[in-house]
């Protein structure tokens, strides 16, 4: 199982062919996003809409929001937080070296570990600090 991080999901929404090919190669049924990733994507799109400086930017923000909502609906699986992920989160939160990782990234890592998933991300700087977390970069 592969979990797509927010940076990867955003690039899919932007039409990244390399990631689309890799999803097809791995099998769409083996690729998922976490509820945290979905929240981050939608929050970013909504913030862009709310901060639009003019009508043109406002319309572009609305298009991107609609596109992201549609693509998230098409995502075969949005994985929720469960008991195992909550336990992993508590365990990881106690590791001093992980304090510099943001809360959302720590949640995503916890969910990947709890589900035995490989996290697909470009953000290896933070995620490589998480013990036992397997990561891959499908962008570069």
Structural overview:
With 140 residues, the chain is an alpha/beta fold. The protein has one domain: 5'-nuclease (Rossmann fold, 3-Layer(aba) Sandwich), CATH 3.40.50.1010. Helix content is 59%, strand content 10%. The protein is built from seven helices and five strands; from the N terminus they run βααβααβααβαβ. The chain has helices spanning 6-13, 17-26, 35-50, 55-74, 83-93, 103-115, 124-127; strands spanning 2-4, 31-34, 78-79, 118-120, 135-136. The protein has a five-stranded parallel beta sheet. α3 packs antiparallel against α4 (55-74) and α5 packs across α6. The mean pLDDT is 92.
Please supply descriptive tags for the structure shown above.
Rossmann fold; 5 strands; 140 residues; alpha/beta; 10% strand
Quick one: CATH class? Answer: Alpha Beta
**Helical element count?**
7
What does the average pLDDT come to? 92
Number of domains: 1
- Count all strands and give the number: 5
**SSE sequence, one letter per element:** EHHEHHEHHEHE
Helix amount, in percent? 55-70%
* C-alpha geometry: globular
For the largest beta sheet, what order do the strands appear in spatially? Answer: 3-2-1-4-5
By helix and strand content, what is the structural category?
Answer: alpha/beta
Q: For the record, what is the CATH homologous superfamily label?
A: 5'-nuclease
Strand content: 5-15%
The biggest sheet amounts to: 5 strands, parallel
The CATH architecture would be 3-Layer(aba) Sandwich
What value does the Rg take, in angstroms? Answer: 16 Å
Question: Are there runs of 5+ residues with pLDDT below 50, and where?
Answer: none
Q: Within the CATH hierarchy, at the fold level, what is the topology?
A: Rossmann fold
Measured between the Cα atoms of the first and last residue, the distance is 20 Å
